[in-house]
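Hey, I'm writing a tutorial for new members on how sequence and structure tokens pair up, and I'd like a real worked example in the thread rather than a made-up one. If someone can provide the structure for the chain below, I'll link this post from the tutorial.
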Amino acid sequence: MGPRFPDMSEPYSKDLIKKAKSIAKDLGIEVRKGVYAGVTGPTFESRAEYKMLNLLGADAVGMSTVQEVIVARHMSLPVFAMSVITDIGIREDENIITHEEVLEAAREAEPKLTTIFAEMVKVL
């Protein structure tokens, strides 16, 4: 379906990012651009892992997006991705991240992401 070693020097389409940012701005939805680190999961990262990823320059961390982007780029598909920051990662020593908190944050963000993606489809 594509090259054995796809070029990942620019995995995300600048054109699609530009369109999404414009749509979000028109809708009054705040979006940010950053460095997304991918880990294998399926676990929440340890404090040491969050610290390491932060030192490496990651702004966000997730479990599946990077692998999915690699597959899409392998197939020469243009790629655009959005992520919801569902937890702040490094917190007080005794504060535990729960799956319920993550799901709640995702539920709250879902209408905004759905709107942006629906508008993206219209302009494509």
